[in-house]
Amino acid sequence: MKVRKAIIPAAGLGTRVLPASKAVPKEMLNIVDKPAIQYIVEEAVASGIQDILIITNRGKGVIEDHFDHAYELERNLEGNPAKAKMLEQIKAVAQLANVYFLRQKVTKGLGHAVLCAKSFVGNEPFAVLYGDDVIISDHPVTAQLSRVYDEFGCGVVGVKEVPRKDVMKYCSLDVSTVRDNIMKCHNIIEKPTQEQIMSCYAILGRVILPPEIFGLLEEGIKSAIGEYYLTDSMADLGKAGKLLAVDFDGTRYDMGDKLGIMKANCEVALKHPEIAEDFKAYLKKLVKTL
Question: Residue 233: which H helix or E strand, with range?
Answer without folding.
Answer: helix 230-239
